[in-house]
Design goal:
4-stranded antiparallel sheet; 33% helix; Alpha-Beta Plaits; alpha+beta; single chain
Length: 138
């Protein structure tokens, strides 16, 4: 059965722009060779990482959305793991094409039972004497 998937991967920032394009082309060709149809690609550019990975603080982010058989994902993950140029990767089932009931089942059950509530907290600055004077006079 053909499903729609999306994969995001982070390429190491030490590569040149040419090597980056070569890496992306390698994976798009890999998917095409395995019978996948590329729907959408998007270069997110160089971004700061949330935490250092292999002593790198930035990386090139790239998104590929495609339709393929489920067996392609396992082969794609093996190819990702063998490539030293990738810092992280995340192939997943695309939620944009799921029906609302399936999309609802993909969300954590605790959020469906107990949706987060917006809470308002009132703080009186004048009552707390620990604040600096410039905040009290504001």
């Amino acid at each position: 059965m053909v499903n729609r998937y999306e994969t995001v991967f982070i390429v190491t920032p030490v590569l040149s722009e040419e090597q980056m394009k070569e890496t992306v082309e390698k994976y798009t060709n890999f998917l095409k060779d395995h019978g996948a149809e590329i729907i959408y690609t998007n270069n997110w550019g160089m971004r700061k990482l949330a935490y250092p990975i292999r002593k790198k603080n930035t990386g090139f982010y790239y998104l590929i959305e495609f339709e393929a058989e489920g067996s392609v994902i396992a082969d794609l993950e093996v190819a990702y793991k063998r490539d030293e140029r990738l810092l992280r990767f995340s192939p997943s089932l695309s939620t944009s094409m799921l029906s609302p009931t399936t999309r609802r089942s993909a969300t954590p059950r605790r959020l469906l039972r107990n949706p987060p509530r917006r809470q308002t907290i009132k703080i009186s600055v004048s009552e707390n004497k620990n604040y600096p004077r410039n905040i009290l006079n504001y």
